[in-house]
Write the structure tokens for this entry.
Amino acid sequence: MQRRVCPLCLLPKQIVRSHLTPQALYRDMRVKDGGVPDPVVVSDGTRAHQTSLQITRDLLCSDCEGVLSRDGENYVLRECQREDSFPLQERLRQAPRVVSGNTAFFPAREIPGIDVDALTHFAVGVVWKAAVCTWQLGQSKPIRVDLPPNLLHRARYYLRAGAPLPAEMLVSLSVPGETDAPAFFTPPKTYALRPFQRIAFYVPGLEFQITIGRREELAQLRESSLSGSQEGWVRVASAWELPSVRGMLQLTADVEPSAALGRWLEVATPPN
Ligand SMILES: [Zn+2]
């Protein structure tokens, strides 16, 4: 172990191995009956592939790792899609909702067992880690997102010191409605969505989007977001309508899927 300044608490500490997303997420990811255990979808620029490699590097001290686990990761690990269960989706099944077309919105703050603050902390933690340094998965393209320095700094205060979430940041959460939605992980990626910047990533059953913009520009989006609304809205739609799932399919259309990913996609192909 090396001793240097931990970028989350800014104290000189022993630095330990950090995961971009918790190790246990990878352990539990599989497509039902698919028999392919490694659906982590990334691209090296010429080929989209799945891998069992974990996205790790020496980054934080063990105290900060503990804070990220306690305040967000542990909850997400319990509630995300697993091989045989999807606790968060089950909680939504019985809950009141507002339906708009093919999409349903659930006021998560009113639903027992849904921890909006933990979901938000997890999403911001993953994006902060992806912004504070570059991550690499095998030979794939480096994984990194850009956050303005001022926002990176205030996100650190939110994550580590319990400061309010910066008003220029909104977290949204979408959940697939199907019980057999494809389970996979895609690392954080930035999309320009003028006048906003949006960073999205997917862990099994949970699509997180972090929208960054000026406070007044975000006012309308805030009302339907997880982190900014009083209700803590969670959106449920068909998996095939979620941008991450479409992006996963697009990625494999743009660049040739590896043989293993091709087999997995056969299992995960949308219904006609
Ligand atoms: Zn630390």
